[in-house]
Write a structure and sequence with these properties.
- The structure is a single chain.
- The chain is an alpha/beta fold and about 375 residues long.
- The protein is about 45% helix and about 10% strand.
- The strands form 2 sheets. It has a 5-stranded parallel β-sheet.
- Helix 1 packs parallel to helix 2, helix 1 crosses helix 10 and helix 6 packs across helix 9.
- It is globular.
- The two termini are about 30 Å apart.
- The relative contact order is 0.14.
Length: about 375
Amino acid sequence: MNKVRHVLGISGGKDSAALAIYMKQNYPELDIEYYTSDTGKELQDTYNLIESLENFLGKEIIKLPVLSDDTLNPFDHFIKMYNGFLPGTISRWCTKKLKLEPFEKFVGDDLVISYVGIRGDEDREGYISKKSNIQSIFPFRKNIFSEDVTSKFLSNNNIDNVLKFYKTLDLGEKSERIFEIINDPISINFNQTQKLNNLLDLGIKEYNNVVFQFLKTTDYPLSQEDHFPLIENEDILVRDNIFKILEESGVGVPAYYKAIEFEVNGKKSTYARSRSGCFFCFYQQKIEWIWLYEQHPDLFLKAMEYEKDGYTWIQDESLAELVHPDRIERIKEEYIKRKERTKSKVQSPYLLDILEDAEGEGCASCFI
């Protein structure tokens, strides 16, 4: 039997940090390798978090990527290769070169279980490698398995096998309803998500156990494991759980999430940063750019230095234009209006609770 590696990537954000703590506390028997893809352009708060995590885990967090050219940091190495062409929402070469390729080089051709910190209150799948030797697991979600596994398991062609696997379990009075759902094929009127949720509602552990049996018939890395403790997992963790894990562990919430007060035209409000990642990330909202300008002016100036030859971080607006006093005033006023519209459902000091849609934007490889 081939040895399976268990790995967990630390982005510097809240979710991946909380997942590392959660796995250490709940599954200490798993020999997990922790890694981080350091672009060389992170906030100091990110590096502080990684150091705190290493102390908590009692284990090194391996730094990727490793470059042969040690005269430049990773981002500057590739910006030089791309002749100053800045990454953006259309051309995310930074994700490919600084996150995905280093990760796939790190694991090579080994069989790998990759733990991903997408929460139970998020509607996104996250990065799934196209390499067959890498399998993603999502411990915070109701369904811990990835979309590719789910679609194969629940396909109409696999109904007989699913029935066979479920019949090996003691389902009690739920058996009739479970078999009824399994026998109902996926169609326009009964899609995969509905079928999945119906089965999970009738037993998360039972569903996990059956999927694990199914995986034993495939080439997925989990087929090589005699036992996988997460099939007994029924936890569904949401945003509040994440902050609780970070605070109670002593690792703490990254400082950039903390709200800072500002005033514009007699109106007071707060701003912060809603994500981890490079300080010049093109996915951050304009109020976050203003936060960077006012809280870390040295980093903002460094971000400005990359804007040349027509390349800008924000489409149709340079950073020099963004921080014109009149523009800052408008951005802050628009942001305050937006906060007021959502005030009734905001109970948190963190910007990501105010800009909920911002969290779903961007690349999961950077921000989880």
